[in-house]
Task: structure prediction
Amino acid sequence: MDSTPDVLPDLLEKVTNLAKRRGFFFQTAEIYGGFRSTYDYGPLGANMLRNVRTAWWKSMVQGRSDVVGIDAAILGPPAVWAASGHLETFTDPLVDCLTCKERWREDKIGGVCPNCGSTQFTEPRAFNLMFKTQAGPVEGEGAVAYLRPETAQGMFTNFNNVLATTRKKPPFGIAQIGKSFRNEITPQNSIFRTREFEQMEMEYFVPPAEADEWYRYWIDARLKWYHDLGVAPSLLRLHEHAKEDLSHYSKGTTDVEFYFPWGWDELEGIANRGDYDLTQHSTHSGTRLEYFDQTANERYTPWVIEPAVGVTRALMAFLLAAYHEDEVEGETRTVLRLDWRLAPYQVAVLPLSKKPELEGLSKEVLATLQRDFMCDYDVTQSIGRRYRRQDEIGTPYCVTVDFDSLNDQCVTVRDRDTTHQSRVPVKELARHLHERTTLAV
Ligand code: GAP
Result:
C-alpha cells in the first residue's frame, strides 16, 4: 500500500497548464498580476466543481436517511470561535528568515529557508489563521466578525435546530458544503492550499460508546468514495495521526492521502471529535446541546465523527488522477479519464461541417441532449482535432452529425477511452447515453 506509484514527470505543470489553457481555473485578478494564491474557476472548472459537490451530496445526503444538509453563514461572531477554540489555538508557528526576511511556517521547512538556505530564524510566533473583519458601519470590538475557517461550527451551533425540525436521533449526521477562509502563511501548489477554498463536511453524531465503530465506518466509506469515482487505489492511502499531532479537538484523526506530484499529502481528514464541540458550545452559550434518549430516559452529549474534504482540493486530485497521455493512430493524445459524473461535459455535439443543414439537425440533437446532460457544441476545425480537444477535457462521449445523418437519422457516438465509434439512431440517442452513464436526472 505504501509503495510509490508511477506518475508522469512534470504532472503538476502539465495539469496546471491544461487547467489554464482550457478554462478549469485561473489566478484571481490575473489582469492585475494575480492575487495571493486565490483562484477563479472558469467554465470547465465551474462545471466540475458542481459535479464534485453533487457526487459528494448524493453519497453523503441524498442516498442516506440518517444525514441532512444545512447551509450556514460564512460570517460569524467571535463567541463561536472562542467556544470552538479557534481564537486561541487555530494558529501556525511563524518564523522570519534572518537572512532573506522571508516568512515561513516553521513546521513545514525543516529548519532550512527554502528561499536562501539559511538556518537562522526568529523565534516562532503563533499566527492566527482566521480572517477578521467588521460587521456594520461602526468599528470597534463590538463589530468584530470572522470568516469561518471551517464549515463544521455551523453544524454544531445548529444542532438543536436540526434535532427539533427533523426529529433525527443519533446516529445521524448534518452535512454542509461551502466556502471557508484561512490566512495560510505559505499557500502552495496551485489550488491545493489556498486562502479561500470550499469544504464538504459532515458531522455525524453518535452515542459515545459507538464512536470508535463509526470512526472506522467513515474512514472506510470515504476511501471507497474515491475508488468509486475512478481514482486508482494505488494513488490513495490512509494515514493515522500520531497522538501528539492531533488538532485541539480531536481524539483520533485519519487522513485519506493522495499521491500528489510532490508526494503523499492530505486529501481528506476523518476525525473523532469526541464531545468537544457540543460541550464547548453548551458551556459558552448557556444552551444545552444534548440528546434526550426517551427509551433509556437519559440525556447525553453525542460524540462526533467528521469526514472533511476540500472541494477544490478534491477537484485537483481528480484532475491529477485522470490525466493520461496515450497513443491513438500513431499520435500522442492527452486524455482526462474522468468519471462521467465528474467530467465538465458529458457529451459534445459535433456537426461534421458548418453547412446549415447539418447545423440544423445538430442543434436539434443538442437541444434534446441538453435536457439531461451537460453538453458542449463545437463546429471549428477538423473532426480529429475536435475529438482531441474533447479528450483533453475529459468528455466521455462525442456525437458526430454527418451528411448520412440527414438521410438515415443516425449519428456517430464516439467513446473517449476506447475511441470506439458506433452508429445510433437520433431517436434512441438519449436512452443510449443514459444506459452508458446511468445519469439520474
Ligand atoms: N472541520 C475540520 C477541518 O476543517 P482540516 O483538516 O483543517 O479539518 C479539512 O480541513 C479539509 O479541508 C482538508 O483535508 C482539505 O481537503 C481542505 N482544506 C483545508 N485547508 C485548505 C486550504 N487552505 N486550501 C484548500 N483546501 C483546504
The longest helix spans residues 43-62. The CA atoms of residues 75 and 147 lie 5 Å apart. The domain at 345-437 is CATH 3.40.50.800 (Rossmann fold). The chain has two domains: 11-68+156-319, 345-437.
